[in-house]
Prior knowledge:
The chain has 202 residues and is mainly β.
Amino acid sequence: MFSGIVEECAKVVGIEKDRENVHFTLECSFVDELKIDQSVAHNGVCLTVVKIENGHYTVTAMKETLDRSNLGLLQVGDEVNVERSMMMNGRLDGHIVQGHVDQTAECVSVEDAEGSWVFTFHYPFDPEMAKRGYMTVDKGSVTVNGVSLTVCNPTKESFQVCIIPYTFDNTNFHNIKVGTRVNLEFDIIGKYISRYSALLNQ
Length: 202
């Protein structure tokens, strides 16, 4: 479980394909604090640490994860938003994030808001998935590349988020431009409410 408060950007230093799996090796400031089997969110995707060596750590993504996320687009040198699992004795500064990416979206606009930035993302609308909570609502929560954000101006197939300078500088939002594909995780609370409503109306 995560909060969507990104700790830093890790750098991809190695990519190795192993049949349908891909092993990603990364470096970041807290490598020495990691343990094998620990969960770390990468652009919002929960992955297990499988190897720690020479100041780097390795995680493995399977085909399902690669198909649903932007991890398959990563190249050596890319920056990845990383967050270790949430400690239960602290404040929940973001929102409840599972690290289970639902789908990707495409950035279609980046606007300068005189000190901050407004990003617009588009994703394919699926009525059946929307009934199950795979959607955004105004002032609701959404996770974009692992960052907990507040939704603005949602439509059935797009939404906006406002990014302050700190978030822009300390996550890979500074690398997102028109055409960039990002990972989305919709709010788990909305999914449960949608599922409950559907069962009541059967």
